[in-house]
Amino acid sequence: MKTFPILLSFLIACYYCHAQDYPRYQIDIQNIIDDAYGYQEEVLNYDELYENLLQFRSHPKNLNKIDADGLLELHVLTPAQIQSLLTYRANVGEFVSIYELQAVPDFDLPIIYKLIPFVFVPDPSAVISRGLFQRIREEGDHYLLLRYGESLQRKAGFTESDSSKQFKGSTGKLAVRLRSSRPGDFSFGLSFEKDEGEPMRWSTRNKQYGFDYSSFHLQLVNKGRLKNIILGDFQVQFGQGLVLGGGFGMGKGGETITSVRKSNIGLLPYTSFYEAGAFRGIAATVELSRKFIITNFVARNNRDARVVENEDAEFITTLQTTGLHRNEKEMAMRKQSTETNAGIVLQFKHQGLEAGIISHYLSYDKPLTKKAALYNQFSFSGKTNLNNSIYLNYNWQNISFFSEIANSMQAGSGFITGVLASLHPTFDLSLVGRFYQRNYHALYGNALAENTTAQNEQALYWGWKYRMNRRWTASGYIDLFVFPWIKFRNYQPSRGSEWLAKIDYTPNRKVKFFVQFRQEEKSRNQSNEGPLYISSATRKQNWVVSSVFGIGQKLRLQTRLQGSNFKFNSDYSGGIAVMQDISFEAGKFEFSARYALFDTDDFDNRQYAYEKDVLLAYSLPSYYGRGVRHLAMLEYKVSRSLTLWFRYTQTRYAHREEIGTDLEMIKGDLESDVKFQARLKF
Q: Which SUPFAM superfamilies does the record match to this protein (predicted)?
């Protein structure tokens, strides 16, 4: 791989961009994602994370009402800055303008620019005195979004001769969303989607009414003691995610301080097109007194499942989460299991102390019995599960302590505790310990973990961030973990480690540059000789170099170079990808493009990088093999109420006669997609 010319051109670009000034429009979602998810991988559900991030962005928080928990969840401010803002508000009074943030001690312009998209200061002359329907009609933010996408190459599923495997629907992917909301008051939403190959049909027997997927919610907020009520689809986040984690688990690899501590977001409407992430029912939060708050929810969902009948009894072998129902085999698993959830959360808040009790009950209409394997002997099985936990958070000056301990019914327990501290105005520290037994079961948990679930793990995480000056910042973490029991692809108790180091350079408002290096060491099964499994250590290293700069107020350029290497036994492989992005505004038009080259030796070195997409859509392509990828997107603001998008992507692979496998296989070396979107605000 000839990387020297690429590196040279990258450094030249960085040199010429040095003395620019950050454009206003650059405070966008791509910069926020770079900060929060510096290392991107397939393990996390980025669709949900992105959707929740956009909810925070499109529904900013009242700066005069938001508490320490809410500020931490934005992943923008350090514990010291949060304490500084709250102290200023307590001493001076409510903010009268967003510009007053410049008067808060320890706040500089870069921090303010990061915070502004997520907060607002209400007009003091505005009083909610009109009726709800009048506010919806006159003061709400309403829009209708229509999206259509299609692959320009025919996949094998459409031409499959076996009728049970052949896709039954059209080649297009269609999504519709209607949303009306007013921050701190109400929210109403409807979403519909059909994936590529899924049929549009009306069948009460199959519980499908037109679109394959539909979602809705109605939310009212701040109605006296009724702080929040949601009817329809919702998420729940309390404690540190051991029991109820919603879609807010950022994992490791990005922001090293605030991302490891979860906040009590509570109830949030579910608006993602991911089909397996929501509760459907009713939920409410009521303020019992100034110190006590109670949240209750009940939900019943029809889940996709593979159901097997044995000796006149039915049981579930697999819960499907892909959301795909394209052929007879996939449609046979559609909504085959009924899942019932009920929960209660009692919170106590007093000054910097916050404590709570969480109880979550889950029940399936059929027992879940997974196919027996060495690694899943302690996984959840049966029809019911009950999780109970206690959490305790305490904020004192520049220190934030958090913890949660949980137990599964007649099974194991989990425990997590940690602290965030600003030891100096320039130095922040995070320290987190976690202990999850091998038989701890939390099907809606989303706690910090090395595994995909909080199970069979003991670990210690240490993160740090040092601001050398207003331009330079260094950060990193070390995570040491032990797996006391065997796990998937590693049939021996084992241990491992992960560390990351990152340096950010922001000389002015137009330039942003960072370098990041990450290394992870684990064990993996090597071979099976007789009754014994032999495992060997693996080592994976990832690195990223990124430069963002603007020319004037309209042009934005970003260059990203990233690579990895993977060592297993005596085998060594690598991969690299280089991406050049450009965004340009011209009147009502905004044009975005990417040109990417990639060369990876194997699947272990596939490269992931965020890619700009139409509004409310997330794209994280996998660069695997050798080839080139192009992206072009045009946004046209027809009027104040109507905006149109057109997006085209193309990937051409070298030395390939087919792309993908099984029903996703495409003949040839070319893969291309188009996407159209329209948003009408009214």
A: RuvA domain 2-like (SSF47781)
